[in-house]
Amino acid sequence: MRFPPAVLQSPAAREAIRIIERLRDGGYFAVLAGGCVRDALLGRTPKDFDVATDATPESVQRVFGKRHTIAFGASFGVIGVLPPRQRDVERERLVPTEVATFRADGTYSDGRRPDHVTYGTAEADATRRDFTINGLFYDPTSDEILDYVDGITDLQAMHLRTIGDPDRRFDEDKLRMLRAVRFVTTLGLSVEPSTLAAIRQHADSLAVVSGERIGAEMRRVMCQADAVRGLRLLVDTGLYQQVWPQLELANWAKLQFCWERLQLQCFETAMATTLLVLHRNASDAVRDLKKLTQQWKLSTAEQRAISAAIDLAPKIIDCADMPWSMLQPLLVNRDIEVIVAAAQAIAEDRAGIERARVELQREPALLDPPPLLSGDDLIGMGIAPGPHFRSWLDQIRCLQLDNELRTHDDAVAWVRRQA
Ligand code: ATP
Ligand code: MG
């Protein structure tokens, strides 16, 4: 397998190579490591380019100068190296490149992280990584792939396999089980049988992993075209009990069918669609969302968009004959894109969605005209604030949208008739 040279042309890759060359000039050995090598060999665009080196964090700081480095995770050997000039940061949107010292993890006693970190050889650093496909290095100076873990064989076969005994590796760090589901989903791999068996065996122990880290992995799983496969794997391995117990209810054929119609591939639409398919009614879906919001630490914006879609997607599906005054407030919802996408995924009848899409093309002034009358106007008319206030303003808004009141004066006259 050759490392595709085109991948090395991006600004981020050139920056990583600059760093590798500087470290070499300083007498150290450095390579590209982990996810970027895997992605490049799979013909994908790497998200970022991580460097691994035999230089200690202090030496890395010395080579680049303190001002050009950030002690990211100095305690576990990671230094961020900044591009040489601020200009490059702005022009090419470069972020610091992570430079990690080769390390050999010691023992694990909490099921989450090594008790202490010791620096080691490139080979030790490869073998402490989780999966063989993640244990590859690329040396750009010699154009060689360093494969201490038989990762290339597994990449070619599209197999996900732990480095070393799967039982021990999942016992050390439980999050790796969920990372397995993530890599299967994002990269379209199959899980090698002994790795799969070990996940099944250790699934319950995922309970020691924080909900936040579970949420971070699930965000990545849910954004994929192939997410349903990931969700099925969660159930198949038993991990779902710690991640999302209600997946037990899933009608997979229906979920897959809806998934294929999901056009906006984002976390919020994916969640809303799954929750709507999973649960018979909106209140069950909302209850499930509440639990996940707490456990996965969803942001307010994520939670808002997902619950808006659960609540309003069914209304959009049924909106074909709805009066404009009822539909308009739905269409000006700030999460309307998520709502319509979820509606599109679950709808049996498309008439409502087609109408919503057409109406959404209206010019802003027609989609959401300024109100004819405000609460201040009512007070100005000498009307005492009270419960009828809101109700009148709402009625005026409806009449405005349905074209029965056209001007401020029409609205004032209408109020006079009520008072
Ligand atoms: P991506 O960045 O695309 O999400 P990645 O493989 O780079 O994928 P990271 O979480 O950035 O994933 O980790 C970088 C590398 O560190 C991995 O490729 C793997 O070699 C190693 N690694 C990360 N997490 C673990 C873990 N829990 N146990 C062992 N090795 C790990
Ligand atoms: Mg990475």
TrEMBL record:
Its EC number is 2.7.7.72. The keyword Transmembrane does not apply. GO terms for biological process: tRNA processing. SUPFAM superfamilies: Nucleotidyltransferase (SSF81301), Poly A polymerase C-terminal region-like (SSF81891). It is an enzyme of class 2 (transferase). It comes from the Bacteria. It holds the Pfam family PolyA_pol. InterPro entries: Bact_CCA-adding_enz_type3_sf (IPR050264), NT_sf (IPR043519), PolA_pol_head_dom (IPR002646), PolyA_RNA-bd (IPR032828). Residues 188-248 form the tRNA nucleotidyltransferase/poly(A) polymerase RNA and SrmB- binding domain. Its cofactor is Mg(2+). Keywords: Magnesium, Metal-binding, Nucleotide-binding, Nucleotidyltransferase, RNA-binding, Transferase, tRNA processing. Gene3D superfamilies: Beta Polymerase, domain 2, cca-adding enzyme, domain 2. Residues 32-160 form the Poly A polymerase head domain. GO terms for molecular function: CCA tRNA nucleotidyltransferase activity; metal ion binding; nucleotide binding; tRNA binding. Belongs to the tRNA nucleotidyltransferase/poly(A) polymerase family. This is tRNA nucleotidyltransferase/poly(A) polymerase.
